[in-house]
Structure formats: structure tokens, C-alpha cells
Amino acid sequence: MIYNNVDFDTYFRNYPDTDGYFGKYGGQYVSDELKAAMKEIDTAYNTICKSSKFISELRRIRKEFQGRPTPISHLERLSNKLGNVQLYVKREDLNHTGAHKLNHCMGEALLAKYMGKKKVIAETGAGQHGVALATAAAYFGLECDIYMGSVDIKKQAPNVARMKILGANVVEVTDGLATLKEAVDAAFNAYARDYKNCIYCIGSVVGPHPFPMMVRDFQSVVGIEAREQFLEMTGLLPDAVVACVGGGSNSMGMFAGFLNDPVDIYGVEPLGRGEKLGDHAASLKYGEEGVMHGFNSLMLKDENGDPAPVYSVASGLDYPSSGPEHAFLHDIGRVKYDVVDDDETINAFFELSRLEGIIPAIESSHAVAYAMKLAKKMKRGSILINLSGRGDKDMDYIIEKYGIR
Q1: What is the pLDDT of residue 3?
Q2: Is the CB of residue 382 less than 8 Å from the CB of residue 239?
Q3: What is the mean pLDDT of residues 39-43?
Q4: Can you point out the beta strands (E) in 293-341?
Q5: Three-state secondary structure along 167-226?
Q6: φ and ψ at 59, to 5 degrees?
Q7: Is 225 a catalytic residue?
Q8: Which residues neighbour 39 within 8 Å (Cβ) at sequence distance 6 or greater?
Q9: For the residues 280-287, what does the mean pLDDT come to?
Q10: How many Cβ atoms from other residues are within 10 Å of residue 116's Cβ?
Q11: In the predicted model, what is the mean pLDDT of residues 11-28?
Q12: Residue-by-residue DSSP string for 43-93
């Protein structure tokens, strides 16, 4: 399929290019010293990603440790309430540790072992990436440092406890807004000081090349499985695919399975409290081109051109930029990016819980909320939602802030 002069038959061979660009987005905006570290990671990854030994080991881990493939569930009661459109969810909440994050963390930790590194470090917002990396570090016998903003530490106490039980060192970040951006800043600084002994396992399809490519590749198992499963269940492809977008790892993994199909694809960003700068984190809808954390993409900027303060009810989505591949797919129009606000998200959280017995992560609830709106517009057809994580981590916060509806 060719879309706006991009050939999706050969898309994954050509994007990113050898310099790490998806069109004008991506690249490697880091110091010369860190460029050497990035080259080491790029060389190692491109060597082992074609290795039958590495692929076989990763497949074994996914099957025997992670519990993959995760299933697809038909949301029959919710579909009936909304009308005639049939909703389905890809159940990444049933992946070990409760979210999609382990898909790339096991791959990155396996890469770290191959490279002879002793420690993995990372940032986390909602805590799912931190829990996943702590799990991978325990599995492979690696040290693990997780940087997390103090605001998110308070919101996500259950995941903080999980990380510590798994043996990770949780480093509290108090700078700035003390959320995801500041956690990334701190983790990058720590990596720059000790890159010879450790590897920074970025938690999304962001950062300098090769991380957007690597994380996409590891997460593509979600879309590949989902496509096969949906065809087996229904004999057809879905009419639409929906996933939430912060940095964009779960969505990029899901979209990868359907980019070359005649399927509408929707990425859902957090509108938060509204359109005013500082009240949302919708960088693809409201942002402009800019560089942060080592990559060029669309980002929300303040009056000085620096990353703007952002907000989302979902700790995993409050990031002022998005992955460079998302920015590219946005520009060429292959993926439609839209928003839902906090109220719509929390309503979807309770609707899915009450009607289907599935408590979703607040991040995933953004995708559910958008799919509910889309179903009312479509009148007929099917929608496949990536349910990127479970809501155990969010329940105390939801009850405290919103009560039981």
C-alpha cells in the first residue's frame, strides 16, 4: 500500500533511515560522548536482532515467562450499549506485570546482557515501565535504577512497592514539576555519567536513535499478534484500530501490525483539563517541531521555546513530546491523532469495569473513551482497542480523586 508517497510494503526496511530519521523527525541530538554510546547500542542491536539465538530466546521468554500471546476479548455488553459497532480489546493487561512494557524491557535487558552491561537504568511515569524493567533486571541478574518524579511516586504507590520488592533502586526526582519529563532528564544525566557500565532502557519510542526503532520493534509483537487473532476470530480485519499515545510505545506496537492494511488508525492523546497550555499533554495535536531528550519531534513549547509544562490524569501520558515515528505518521496522515479529556477517560474507566469486568489503566482508558465516541459515529463495523495495561495501580488514586461512580 502506498500512502502519500510512502510505500508501506517496504516501510520497516526504510524507516528509520540509517541516521535514525522518520522523514525529518528522529535523529540523535546528544553529546559526542553519548553518540559513541548510541553507536555501540545500535551496532549491538543490529547484530543480534537478526540472530536466531537471540530471536529464539526472546520467543521463549515471551511464551514461558510473559504469557504471550495475550488474547483479544470481544466487549459484547459495551458494544450493545453503544449501538451496532463491535468493540474488541487486545489484552496487554494480561501480559506479565500488567502492561505492554515488559515486551521491550525483556528485549532491552537481553541486549544489555549481550553487551556485557552490569546495570539497567530507566525513567518511569505510571510505574509500569519501572516495574517491567525491574522484573527484567531480576530475571537476568542485573542491577536496576529507576528514576521517578515525586508526584508520580505518590500517585503510583503500588508500583513503587513492586519495584522495590523486585530489587530495584527507586530514585525520587524532585526537580521542576517532578513528573515524567524530569524523571527522563535525571535518568539521562545518570546514564551519561556511567554509560560504559550500564544501558539506559528508554520506556517508549522516544529518545535518540536507535531507541525509537528498537522499542517499536520489540513492541510490534502486539500488532502482529492482534492482526492474526482478529482475522482468526472474525475472518476480517478491524475497521479501526485505536490506542493511547504519550511517548507512544503501546500504540506504535499496535499500529505496526496494521500500517499496510486498509484500516483506519487512531492515536489518542490526553486533553486533560482543556486546551490551555499546561492543562494537557497533546503534543501531536497542539505541538510544533522541536528537540528534547536527544530527538526531534513535535513538542509542546513554552514562551521561551523550552518544553512546556504538561498535565494528564494518566501519569504515563504526561510528556511534552511524542515519538518521532508518531510525528511522521501524523504529518503524512496515515494515523489520525485526536484527544479525549479527563472526564471522558474516567467515565470509560468505570464503563469498562462495570460492563465487562476489566479494570483498565487510566492510560488505556483514553483509548477506550475515544473508541466509545468513534463507535457512535461509525454506526457499523468493528474497532480494535489496545488495552495497554490494567488499572490496579490506579484504583487508590481514582477512589480518592473521583470516588466510586
Answers
A1: 87
A2: yes
A3: 95
A4: 295-299, 336-341
A5: CCEEEEECCCCCCHHHHHHHHHHHHHHHCCCEEECCCCCCCCCCHHHHHHHHHHHHHHHH
A6: -65, -40
A7: no
A8: none
A9: 98
A10: 8
A11: 97
A12: HHHHHHTT-HHHHHHHHHHIIIII-PSPPEEE-HHHHHHH-SPEEEEEEGG
Q: Are 20 and 28 in contact (CB under 8 A)?
A: yes
Catalytic residue among 321, 382, 388, 393: 388
Q: What is the CA radius of gyration of the chain?
A: 19
Is 388 one of the annotated active-site residues of the chain? yes
- 398: how many CB neighbours lie within 10 A of its CB? 20
CB contact burial 314-345 (16+ within 10 A = b; e otherwise): bbbbbbbbbbbbbbbbbbeebbebbbbbbebb
Q: What is the pTM of this model?
A: 0.95
Is residue 35 part of the annotated active site? The answer reads no
Q: What is the pLDDT of residues 130-182, one digit of tens each?
A: 999 999 999 999 999 999 999 999 988 999 999 999 999 999 999 999 998 89
Kindly tell me the sign of the dihedral angle through the C-alpha atoms of 261, 349, 63, 55: positive
- CA quadruple 382, 388, 391, 397: dihedral sign: negative
- Average pLDDT of the chain? 96
pLDDT of residue 42: 96
Residue count of the chain, please give it. Answer: 405
Question: Which pLDDT does position 126 carry in this prediction?
Answer: 83
- pLDDT above 90 as % of the chain: 92
Q: Which residues contact 273 (CB under 8 A, 6 or more apart)?
A: 279, 280, 311, 341, 342
- Interatomic CA distance for residues 139 and 98, integer angstroms: 16
Residue ranges and CATH numbers for the domains of the chain are: 22-62+101-211 (3.40.50.1100), 67-99+220-402 (3.40.50.1100)
Catalytic residue among 123, 182, 325, 356: 123
Return d(Cα 365, Cα 362) in angstroms, integer: 5
Give mean pLDDT, residues 321-334.
98
Site of grid cell 552491561:
117
Question: What CA–CA distance (Å, rounded) separates 159 from 151?
Answer: 13
Strands 143-149 and 119-124: parallel
Active-site choice (90, 101, 285, 301): 101
Average pLDDT over residues 275-289: 98
